[in-house]
Structure formats: structure tokens, C-alpha cells
Amino acid sequence: MMKPWLILGVLIVALVTMGSSCVNDSFIIPVNVPLEKVYETNTGGQWDDFADILIIGEIPESLSDDIVGSRLVDIEVQAIDPPPGASVQGTASVNGIPAISFGGTGAQFANPVSLLNPGVPAVITQNQAGIDELVRVLDLFLLDPDNTTVRISSAGAVSPPVSAQQIRVTITVQADAQGSN
Amino acid sequence: MSKSLRFLGGIVTAGLCVFLVVGAPPASAQSIVEDALKQLDGPNGKGYMQPIADLFGANMQAGSYHTAAIPKAGFNIAFDIVVMGGFVGDDQKSFDGVLPTGFNPATAKAPTVFGEKGPLITDAGTGLSYRFPDGIINASMFPLIVPQLTVGSFMGTEVFARYVFIPKLGEDALPSTTLWGAGIRHNVSQWLGVLPVDIAVGFFYNKFTSGDLIDYTGTQIGAQASKTFQLVTVYGGLAWEQSTMNLKYVSTAPGGGAVDIDLDGANTFRFTAGALLKLGIFRLFGDINFGSVTHLSGGIGLGG
Predict the structure, then answer these.
(1) CA A173 to CA A86: how far, in whole Å?
(2) ipTM of the complex
(3) How many helices and strands in chain B, by DSSP H and E?
(4) B300 interaction partners in chain A (CB closer than 8 Å)
(5) Among chain B residues, CA nearest to A179
(6) pTM confidence score
(7) What is the mean pLDDT of chain B?
(8) Beta carbons within 8 Å of B68's beta carbon, 6+ residues apart
């Protein structure tokens, strides 16, 4: 009485082989990598600080084995609970090279503004030299993923001076993790 | 390798496909699909996973009956292995992806989990770019296999249940996964006098959970008819059904955060046509189901 089992076997094999080889031979998952630092003003209302970030350390371990591409998605600035009428002025740099300049009221920075959403009128502008530096770092990252770090820094002032005012700068890049069957 | 081992290998292979899709491959902390999903915000996550909800919902509610002839009384028990497969249509391989706010263009055609390569989109104003994840699953058919136990009969009524449990393995390797379903069917013919066919009605509830990521629920109400010719029973049915797959995850996309979305399965109505072959204590069955999702189910049973 093996026939019924054989027929079911054929059915299953048909479903599996006709229908699905399961995982594509090769596929890309672009991993969102936020390179972020929160800066804090001193008693004079100024901030000037940096962070050295190992890029691979920001990528989940399960996806960090085979990175085959990368790109800049956006750079975002936000003041956290700022006085609405205060002036917020600053720059953010990549390896010391300014990538963005920003300036506006606290109210304008209460929600994130970014290169893609610069506000009307724009309160954030792109500086190509710093963007180019970031692209260079991302290219280097593909060649030497385990050791590539990037220094992101920011300096600026809030006036009238507010101490302990937090300014968050987030550089979002995508790193293409390649998976395979 | 013996035939039975090969047979078991087929089941395991098909099962692994299902586990992969639902979030539980054995060798990594998170499934590939879950990794891809976490890169997407709510709207794009919904678009990426909607075909899974459609096909899985249709599969889960298939293959629960193979005849409308339910004995009026007496102890009857049957054990079935039911295999289902929903066809993956071309329209289930892409969706209208939404780019991060401010991008120009604002939308782009992006692959679903069954799709191909993700497009790289460049913002016209800034030169910034964004890429959607590739499709992960290479399939023209989406399979599911479940065991089913049917017990009756009391006043022409029988109950059936499906159950699969995979415990959590390792620290984070494989999330706990549970699939179960239960239903009840009643012989209506007994109340209608002499009819040329047997008629039954039924209700079916089914549920699937995998870790904290997926929580699926489906219900089905239907009527079935069948006619038996010696060894062969021809059966068919109409059913209303609904299913919802809830996904919970934390998105790393710009503006993402905690995502909690419900994906409604496409199937709300199905027509089933099939046949059952009785060979001693064995029963072979197969049917085709038409609705928003067209799919097949079949299998083998003992008893009944």
C-alpha cells in the first residue's frame, strides 16, 4: 500500500520544486545605518563636539558579513525641546569638513529638518565638500569594512544662550548587505 | 535513502520554506525576511509583506474537508496530512513603495518579498539616493503543510483540529512558533430529507504566531456538498472567510520606529472543487480553490 504515500510525495515534491526554490540566489538588503550624535550646549549656549564612529559597529551582526554597496540617504538636525523663539545656528562636519550648515528658530528645529526636508524657507543647506568626504568614507568602508571609522562633529550656538540644550545630528546611510542562497 | 526518508525530506524542505517565510530559519538570530522588513517603515513593510498575508491566509483555511458526508452517529476518527500551495501572481511581486519624505519622486515600484531587484532611486534635487530591499523568496507557489485530526460524530457533527508547535531553540536562534486551527462541521442533509448529494456546513478558526513578529488569525464559514461514487467522492464548497496578519517590529527606516500593522488577507470568498479517493484505510484527496487567491490543496489521510 505504498501508492498513496508515493502520490503524496509527488505532490509535495511538485509543490516544492515547481513552486519554490525558497531563497533567491543572491539578494541585497540595504541596511539603514544612522550615524548619530546628540550635542549639548554649554553655559554660554554653545556646542562643539565630535564622535568617532566605527561604521560596521552600527550594522547588525547578522547583516555585516558582506557589504557590497553604500550611499548617503539624508542628514537630519533636531533641537530637543528648544525655546521656540531662540536662534539655533550651527554646522555639522564629516572628518572636519563641513557637510551641512543650519540656522533658524527653535520652533523650526523642534521637529527634524533634513536635506530632503529643509523647510520653507530652507533652514539647512548642503556643503558639497563634506558630502563628498562622506561618500569617500563610504567607498573606503567597502574596501575595509572592519576598520573604517568616520568622525562626525558639530559646532554652533543657541541664542539667547541656553545651557544643556540638546542638538541631535543624524547622518543616515544605507549599507547594502548581500545575502545568498 | 529509503522512500520514507525521502518523503520526510520533502516535508521538511517544504516546511523550511514556510518557516523561512514566517520568520524562523534555523541558523540565524533573525530571519532574512525579518532583517529586510526592519529596514522598511510601516507603509512599505505592509507592501513588502502583503502577498505573504494573502497567500498564507488562503493556505491556512484550505483543505479542512474532503466530503460533506458526515456520519450521523458513531465514533469516527481521521488523521490527514494536508499540503497547500497558493500561486504567486505577477501582481504580487511588486508594490508602490514610498520613498523617505521629501524625495522626488515620492514613490517608486518596489519588489515585494516575492519580487526581484530593489530599485535605486536618486532624489532629483539633492542627489541623495535610496534603495529598496530585493525580494527574498523565489517562488511561483507558496506551500504550507499541516497535520489535521477529525473526530466525530454526534448528531451529524464532527470537530477537527490542526496543530504545529516549534519551541524556541537556542538563546535567539528560533522563535517559538505555533500554528493551530479548530473547526466544527454539521451534516445538514439529515434535516432535509432525501437529496442527491450530501450537504454540510462548517466553521473554522485558525491562528499562527511566530515570536513577537507575526500574529495571524483567520476565520471561515462555509457550506459543502459531495457525491460519493464507490471509491471516489466528488466534493465542492462555497465559503466566506477573512484573515488578518499582524506584524510588530521596530523599523530602522528614517522616521520608522515601532511598527504595528494589520495586513488583511485578500481572500474573502472561495469556491472549492475536489475529489477524494478511498483506498482501504488510506484516503487521497486534492482540490482547487478559486477566489482572490487561486490555490491547490491535497494530501493523504488515514481513517475517516
Answers:
(1) 30
(2) 0.86
(3) 3, 16
(4) 4-5, 7-8
(5) B32
(6) 0.83
(7) 86
(8) B187, B189, B197, B198, B199, B200, B224, B225, B226, B235, B237
